[in-house]
Amino acid sequence: MYQVILLKSTTDFARERWDAVDEVLDYEGVAYSLRAGPRQPLPTDHAWDPVAVYAPEEIGEEEFQDWYAQLQPQVEELRLKY
Question: Taking the model in full, what pTM does it have?
């Protein structure tokens, strides 16, 4: 299984668990591309599935980095060490 984080905006995201990850996918009518991972987090107080992070295809890398940084405080998977 994969822990999937879909960045929707600087303030909104979705968390899913999927059996497989694709490079590009449609989620709620929006095309998303894989931007990070899947990566296996280092051990913490419990086991983690590999984490994959998606963002809308239309945003650039710089905007993706901004969204990632702004969502980090509220999305535990974005704060894990890899």
Answer: 0.90
